[in-house]
Amino acid sequence: MLGQYFYNQTMKKAVAVFGTLFNNMRIVRQGTGETRVPIAYGPRKKFLARIQADTVASTDASIAIKLPRMSFEITDISFDTGSKLNKFNKRCLPISGETAKTNVVNQSVPYTIGMQLNIYAKNQDDALQILEQILPTFAPEYTVAIKDMEGPGTATDVPIILTSTSIQDDYEGDFETRRTIIYTLDFTMKVRFAGGVSEGKVIRIVDTFFYSDTENRATLKTNNPTGEENVRITVDAGDEPPLDDSDTITTTFGFDHG
User: Mind listing the pLDDT tens digit for each residue in 156-210?
Assistant: First the structure.
């Protein structure tokens, strides 16, 4: 039976973070100065269809996509067996202003998301200016911290790995045919999906019993037959998790359990 689900929008965050990495690419052209390269999420075929659309008979030049530009999309998602941890692990996340309760999050599940970035340009100079701004960042990995991926108040390091780069320049036809150079960069993102958030209690008192030698029953105390001595460790009522050197922890010996 599925537990309570924590909707942390992992996929949405991963897509947003990936697109943000490339939303400030700029090129410089002689005579026109610096130009920002737009980027949008969408299938590669859709952008190619719009780029190659016939606009000769149209009086509105804005119908055609202006180049250069970039697009990105999710290509696949698969379970990451190499990063799997024990599914019974749990994480305790503190609740602000609450000392007796905490949020408990089940162990997250690792997945690898394939992302593809496409660079479209009319000439090699524009395409290479964009490409040379991206490649030095990935060697071949770039790590970004994403908030709240594994529960509220968490920060998870997500590696983004550049796995391959390819170029396509299929210029054919007459001079009226629009030429498009495409650089394709494939990436993988190591993300984690978390769920099953529940409310748990904070352990503030711990009792430890030391048992006597069971062979010498004559030494057992009549008022405490189950244990000779007890050690109690108590956390001050005003201390909030996680505990540090500023918190008060009291240890009491000889606590009467009987």
Answer: 899 999 999 999 886 665 555 556 789 999 999 999 888 766 666 666 677 776 6
Contact 183, 166 (CB under 8 A): yes
Bridge partners of 184, per DSSP, are 118, 166
In 3D space, the residue among 63, 73, 65, 66 whose CA is nearest the CA of residue 22 turns out to be 73
Higher pLDDT, 220 or 250: 250
Q: How many whole angstroms separate alpha carbon 39 and alpha carbon 25? A: 9
Amino acid type, 48: L
Q: What residue type is 132 in one-letter code?
A: E
Q: Could you write out the DSSP letters of every residue in 183-230? A: EEEEEEEEEEE----EEEE---EEEEEE---TT-GGGS-TT-TT-SEE
Task: State how far the Cα of 94 lies from the Cα of 107, in Å rounded to an integer.
Answer: 16
What is the set of domains in the chain, with CATH numbers? 10-77+112-146+154-186 (3.30.2000.40), 204-253 (no CATH)
State both tokens at 51. 């780029």
C-alpha to C-alpha distances, 182 to 92, 119, 192, 246, nearest whole angstrom: 47, 5, 31, 59
Report the C-alpha gap between 234 and 208 in whole angstroms: 12
Phi-psi region of 82 (alpha: psi -120 to 50; beta: other; left: phi over 0): alpha
Name the CA dihedral angle for 170, 175, 178, 182, rounded to a multiple of 10 degrees.
30
- Residues 232 and 251: beta-carbon distance below 8 Å: yes
Contacts of 59 (CB under 8 A, 6+ apart): none
Write down the mean pLDDT value for the chain: 77
